[in-house]
Amino acid sequence: MSAPAGNGAWGPGEPLISVCISSYNYADYLIRALEVLRDQKDDADFEVVISDDASTDDSVARAAQFAAENRDMRIRIFANPENRGILENKSRLIDHARGKYILFCDSDDELAPEALSILSGAAQASNADCVVGYVQDVDAQGRVIQVQDFSRTPSKWMVSLLHGSLYRRKIIERYGLRFTQMPEDAVFNLQFHEHSKRVAFVRKPVYRWFVNDQSEGRRKKVLEVPQITERFGRNCRTFRETADRVSARGKRGTVTGTEAQEIELELMKIYYGDLLMANLSVRPAQRMAVYRSMRASMRAAFPNYLRNPNLRSERSIARGYAAKILRWCARFERLGVLGPVLRVYYQVRRFVFFDQ
Q: In terms of domains, do 259 and 146 share one?
């Protein structure tokens, strides 16, 4: 990785927050995200760390120019000499962060107004290991499509998104946490919260997630069946092993028994979300084979997942279309008709994006 550009070093003290931006070919959006941060420069003690994954546009040059024009902001820019992929690029952000907390931001998104003030205030008031806020889904015209909020009784295990949260860097470093598998949001949260003790939930919007048809998550790309099924099988093993460790601690009185069921529910979100997104990533003739393989992996990891009590509780699952999809998919599967429903869905629908 090249030497950092930007505004250099600023003395021995660590900032409260490292805003870590993963950048790849979104120069215009990146500058927009930086301008939003500039508007909040007096609201919190923060630095900005940008890791660019060998963009072919002028992202690095424009970010460096912005840093030069805003020397009162602490901006450091690192450029990969070759494309490393989203997991390694986000991991490199952790390597370079110096703040007490890390906040992740994609270069085509932005923080909400007053987000840093809201999050830093909650962190300092609660001394939490993690602070989580609402995420707004925003369309190309800047209209809010929906707000990804929490349930009435939020749990750290049922937060899917990486963005809009503060993570205590000491925990990340102590346990060597990095981004190792997809979906990176859910897996990182799972691994982090195995070690977190105190989580603060802030019921205010702190992050604006732009529905960008060219983003990595929405871009159509055909994958082979083994790529999808093996990835999901790995997720099943990761979530099962974590749930087992959590359950074992619960017997010693440190973790409640319901947490394993909440971990199970998070895997169900990945399961149904991947099945719906197969419409974008799998050849039509192979989609049902993906369903059968993933269903077998899900059953092997959590044999009783369709009996998860959180599916029936309005207090447990956040509102919004993703919660409705989760419940309806589980209902169809309990009735034994999810396969036919998916066949119809694959024929008549292009895509349903599945988040928190």
A: no
